């Protein structure tokens, strides 16, 4: 059974950019084709930013921060806009849910569930307006009578968004930035710009002051101009580790602030008391999420050698039964990859795994019942060496690698033997044992018997999986600078506190 799919993008002005509170004509006639991954057909076209467009967006954000009303409002006043944005997203939830599957391949049902939770992010940061310590009195010890530790907006933010979950990733950058008093240039992915345009329309609807949010779409070469621009105080980036290294180096040249949420090669450590059938069901189901195009995916499955074959059999059974197809069909359990080059990438890694001696237990090809679309079969490799390419590099597709370990200590060592450290999970029936192993894993998040991403507490990575955190109270800190103020007397408004 299929649900309704709107074949038109529900956007008013994708041929323009949203700059300084207006729909600005692009500096050139260049357009980007957005291709629907399930059909390989054109979904819509969007204007492609050039150097002049990026510069205009930055200029608008700079002016809005330096001389506009936004940073000079109280946190409570800005929180009012965040609540209005949350309500507007709720009203546009169906539009966002139609766009996401047709840009990135996520299931429509999953898109609806995911979009439904996004207003809560804006509401969460709005709530912080009243209880976050933006100004804290401190007693100075080196002179002066009264001290204040003040947390102020970092300034102009360049937010660079990937294609896999843009609406959510925008929220976890835009909401804290706006509460802090920052202004933002939002740079959308060429493959999935729809969420950015929706947010521009919402900014216009709620009356966000001119220049506070500016939205453009550009490829990597032009996007680098945003990173280099000295008028931009901070870059907030989600994407590949390779791109993150480049951004960090460019920001380092001018000491710009940055946060990076990067790639992963996350391990699931299966301890010997865990039921393997249950573990296989959990892991297979989790890897269907966005067809494995999730940075935190648990793709390295580490299990003791004596249980390796049994787990491979269980994974092969559950994963091979996943129904692959149309994201708008209610019977579908996994949709397509987001684009042709992504399917080519995944197929290349599958070929590399076979070439390097891993055992292909199931999958590895294209679904035979689908003659178009960027689909790939759910794939499991067995007897994978942790030094092999498919165990070391992020595939970003539905490919699980099962790695044998000698014992628990060896399993933890294998899990940590990676340049990444974004996510992990421990599978055991003993909660104390799970906590013990979790504390040994070098990872920003560690789940128990499940795939977990808990953005309400803060999400980010160790090692080359990133710098900084997004979500929760931790996610506000990167948009603030700390200032120390020493006064000769107690200010009037503190004398009664």
TrEMBL record:
Gene3D superfamilies per the UniProt record, alphabetical: Aldehyde Dehydrogenase, Chain A, domain 1, Aldehyde Dehydrogenase, Chain A, domain 2
Pfam families, alphabetized: Aldedh
Active site: 261
InterPro entries named in the record: Ald_DH/histidinol_DH, Ald_DH_C, Ald_DH_CS_GLU, Ald_DH_N, Aldehyde_DH_dom
Stored PROSITE patterns: ALDEHYDE_DEHYDR_GLU
Domain Aldehyde dehydrogenase span(s) in chain numbering: 23-485
PANTHER family: ALDEHYDE DEHYDROGENASE, ALDEHYDE DEHYDROGENASE-RELATED
Protein name: Aldehyde dehydrogenase
Protein source organism: Pseudonocardia yunnanensis
Lineage: Bacteria, Bacillati, Actinomycetota, Actinomycetes, Pseudonocardiales
